[in-house]
Amino acid sequence: MERDQLTKRRPMEIQGPRLYQTFSKQYSTSTKPAPQEKFQIDPLTLHTIRLLQHIRKMKNLIQQVTVQHENAKPDAELTFPPALPVPEYSGPDSKPKVTKPFSHMPYTRERLQRIVS
Fold first, then answer.
1. Which of 13, 38, 48, 105 lies at a C-alpha separation of 20 to 30 Å from 65?
2. pTM
3. Which of 83, 80, 84 is nearest to 72 (CA)?
4. What is the CA angle 38-43-31, rounded to 5?
């Protein structure tokens, strides 16, 4: 009897892998909020969002003017709302300034002119 119980197949208990969860005591959400410097939005992304909002406002404005124009009488004078200002980009330059040619661009204009001449 004992031999049968010892040799009997039993399912193994399988534990899944432990999930890696980072824990920061310094910036825990339960104790205090994280500093804003850690989560700043990229200026180019912020400008793109502002441009998309501007486009949405302009489309609504154009739609309102179109409806006003369609509903207006032929002899009535149309009034147009003022145009909205385009949001300006106030972040750093988006293109880096190149001081020397890239390694995959071996010839400069001067060098090409010397070769052609």
1. 48
2. 0.49
3. 80
4. 20
